[in-house]
Amino acid sequence: MQLINKMKHWKMIVFDIFSIIISYFGALWIRFDCKFSMIPSDYIKYYLIEIIPYAVLVVIIYAFFGLYRSIWKFASVYEIEKMVWATLSAMILNAIIMTAFIYRMPVSYFVFGALFQFIFGVIIRFANRFFNIFKDAHTVGAADKNVLLIGAGSAGRMILRDVNYVNGNSHMSAKVVAIIDDDSEKWGRYIDGVEVIGGRDKILYAAENYNIKEIYIAIAKLSPSEKRDIINICKETNCPIKQLPNIYAEKAGVISAGNLQNITIEEVLGRDPIKLNQEDVAAQLRDKVVLVTGGGGSIGSELCRQIVKYQPKQLIIFDVYENNAYDIQLELRRNYPYLNFVTLIGSVRDSKRIESVFETYRPDICYHAAAHKHVPLMEDSPCEAIKNNAVGTYKTAYAAMKYGCDKFVLISTDKAVNPTNVMGATKRICEMIIQSFDYMVRNNRENELPELAMHKFDIDVSDMSKINSGEGHTEYVAVRFGNVLGSNGSVVPLFKKQIAQGGPITLTHKDIIRYFMTIPEAVSLVLKAGANATGGEIYVLDMGEPVKILDLARNMVELAGLRPDIDIEIQYIGLRPGEKLYEEKLMSEEGLKETENHLIHVAKPIEFDTDVFLNQLKELMTLAYDNKAEEVVQMIRETVSTYTG
After folding, report:
1. Does residue 279 sit within a domain?
2. What is the pLDDT of residue 381?
3. Which residue in 186, 202, 288, 415 is the catalytic one?
4. 75 and 32 within one domain
5. pLDDT, tens digit, for every residue of 499-514?
6. Can you give the CATH number for the domain in which 193 is found?
7. Considering the domain boundaries, does residue 280 fall inside one?
8. What pLDDT score was predicted for residue 393?
9. Residue-wise over 63-83: b if at least 16 C-beta within 10 A, else e?
10. In this predicted model, what pLDDT tens digit does every residue of 559-588 receive, in sequence order?
11. Mean pLDDT across the chain, nearest whole number?
């Protein structure tokens, strides 16, 4: 490849030398009325003496200005500007050297020679683009895929140029044939021969009359609500929609059709993204040792991504699944080469391992994201749900208290509210564990908390040191949120896979609804809760109105450029074990207290007898490790009064 590039450079150099020779001879020829016989012999003589050295000088000047490094297929005004400065520099040097040291030539010789040199240089370099423009001007409508461009600003112009001229129809098989822009001043005007036909009210008209096959949204600065309005109109055309992801490309001047992305389902959820003031988060995390359990999962890995932005002293990623842990390790190492972090493999069910991590690294803050989350799987394996979710949370919370961790933040779920399934019930037990630890620490009864690791199937902890009364100072908090788009177990990845396979989309019930939020939103809430926690709270995010899963499925089909129930069938398969139609953010017994951010609330905890609960938890662990599934489910009912499964 390098050899080919060098060969192209040599071709360009030869063309330049030849054009310079022709240019300055042409200047003399024009100076004397286009009659060779009238040119004085001295002019011819000194022209022949200086033209080759001058041509070599020009090549050196062109190289200095980078004219042999540009990719001329993408040439623009920038390259023309460099040609102007290079030609002027060469002409001035030529005039000074010739006049002062060789022979005085006519002024027109230098002026016309430089002018011809510039014209030939531009023609040589822009020949490919001139050819494509000429060809495209005569092939309007010949593309396999007509594109409607929304946005006639600088970003839209770059996309138009990239699709119609730079790449060419033979490569892209696409052509922008009409432009939409809400600025009425641009209506009826043309950009590179393509008309701005009107505002967003013309989108459906354009789709029908221009035989549109794809829509590109190329507006760099667009509010979520405006984008949603445009997307909803575009969806009625049944055309695939792509968008410019952000404004970085426009600032860098590198916008192209390749920058466009498919519209994501997050952008049609029906609300603007949640934004939180994170100054207190930054103050809490800076120069602290932070542990994230389940750090390789969808929530845990996003926690790691956001935590590192606040410059922690050390980040500890802890996960039982090595592939996920390895992926986030590589990502952080690539993006934050100077970050002090360690990646550890282990299970929160392993007392010795989790105690070793806390003893070795002494984390200041622990975000506990490790959990089994799949509702149907946990219905079939309730013992594993207790071992991992309940017992694993207890062991991690105990180690945090024992080794002086300042804050412990539990990742909970709205499925813990009036749970109808084992997974939700175990997460409610996790919340009760957090509340129990908070109660015992506040009342200086830490020494009464049992070490559940003393089960016969676990390790012998007789040699482990006990915590004394009054020594604990850990603040415990739980964060509850709804379904997270794109997370492991979310319906969105499942629907995407089913659409890619041609359907059908399987839906449990046509009326089922869920609250949704994005992974970054969920994680920002977790961090905010950790910063504001004083102990024992359950933080809840106001996620707006719930979303019908049927509407979500239909939106995803339409965004793929397909028709629900026609191109992609939607099948109803019935509610799964433990699944309910409606999810609640709070139990009826819990009240809400608003925080400084009106989108974040604190739930008033349900009161329960801590001592009774701890005994029930020990019994649950015993039954779970004995793999007595039916007895475990019955004990869950006794432990969680709101469980209706």
Report:
1. no
2. 93
3. 415
4. yes
5. 777 778 887 777 777 6
6. 3.40.50.720
7. no
8. 95
9. eebebbebebebbeeebeebb
10. 666 777 777 788 877 766 655 565 555 444
11. 78
Angle between the N-to-C axes of helices 549-559 and 224-235, in degrees from 0 to 180, rounded to the nearest 10 = 70
pLDDT at 382: 92
In terms of pLDDT, which residue wins out, 98 or 454? 98
Between helix 107-137 and helix 41-64 the angle, nearest 10°, is 50
How far is the C-alpha of 4 from the C-alpha of 194, rounded, in Å?
A: 36
Provide the token pair at 592: 């809400």
Residue 105 CA to residue 186 CA, distance in Å, equals 52
Interval 140-149: pLDDT, tens: 445 568 888 8
pTM equals 0.61
Residue for token digits 């939700």? 424
Cα angle: 148, vertex 151, 156; to 5 degrees: 90
Query: Taking the C-alpha atoms of 266, 272, 277 and 278 in order, what is their torsion angle to the nearest 10 degrees?
Result: 0
Q: Are residues 445 and 336 in the same domain?
A: yes
Position 184 pLDDT exceeds 60: yes
Domain check: are 376 and 495 in the same one? yes
- Whether residue 553 sits in one domain with residue 419: yes
Other C-beta atoms closer than 10 Å to the C-beta of 550 total 18
For every residue of 263-318, DSSP letters joined together read: PPGGGGSSSPPP----HHHHHHHTT-EEEEETTTSHHHHHHHHHHGGG--SEEEEE
Burial 135-166 (b: 16+ CB within 10 A, else e): ebeeeeeebebbbbbbbbeebbbbbbbbbbbb
- What is the C-alpha to C-alpha distance for residues 427 and 636, in angstroms, rounded to an integer? 11
Question: Residue 618 falls within a domain, yes or no?
Answer: no
Does residue 469 sit within a domain? yes
Residues 24 and 68 both lie in one domain: yes
Active site residue 415: yes
* Residue 529: band (very low, low, confident or very high) from pLDDT cuts 50, 70, 90: confident
CB 454 within 8 A of CB 391: no
- Residue 309 belongs to domain spanning: 288-607
Domain-ending residue, one of 196, 228, 263: 263
Which residue spans within 44-193 are E strands per DSSP? 145-150, 174-180, 190-191
DSSP codes of every residue in 191-248: ETTEEEEESGGGHHHHHHHTTEEEEEE--SS--HHHHHHHHHHHHTTT--EEE---SH
- Number of Cβ within 10 Å of residue 533's Cβ equals 23
H/E element, 594: strand 592-594
> Do 395 and 422 reside in the same domain of the chain?
yes
Weakest-pLDDT range from 31-40, 47-56, 273-282, 610-619: 273-282
Are the CB atoms for 148 and 203 separated by under 8 Å?
Answer: yes
447/528 same-domain check: yes
Sheet order of strands, 314-319 included: 341-345, 314-319, 289-293, 365-368, 407-413, 475-481, 538-541, 600-603, 592-594
Structure-token match 């956001």, residue found: 306
Q: How many domains does one find in the chain?
A: 3
Q: Both tokens of residue 347?
A: 């299970």
pLDDT of residue 468: 61
Confidence of residue 254 (pLDDT cuts 50, 70, 90): very low
Mean pLDDT for the stretch of residues 39-56: 84
Mean pLDDT of 362-370: 94
